[in-house]
Amino acid sequence: MxxxxxxxxxxEHMAKSGDLTPSTVALLDKYGLDxxxxxxxxxxxxxxxxxxxxxxxxxxxxxxxSYETLLRVHLFPEFIEVRPAAEPLRFANDR
Length: 95
What we know:
Layout: H1 10-17, H2 22-44, H3 50-63, H4 67-80
Helix pairs in contact: 1-2, 2-4
């Protein structure tokens, strides 16, 4: 079983374990986890049924957890599956 050392960032742990590609680790270093998950939210939005967003808003309203936090948590599996294509992923304003 792999354990994260106290004080070690998630990005450092995943990079050392080989779970993330170097380009994904670079995105984490540049934007942080929240920024990367926001990128994935924008990237996947055209493919997600609007009812998913409505459901997350309802959960946010009922739980007191922010919608942004819930969206990011639900997108984490998508983020760790990101693999580099010919061109690395970028935020729209980085072009």
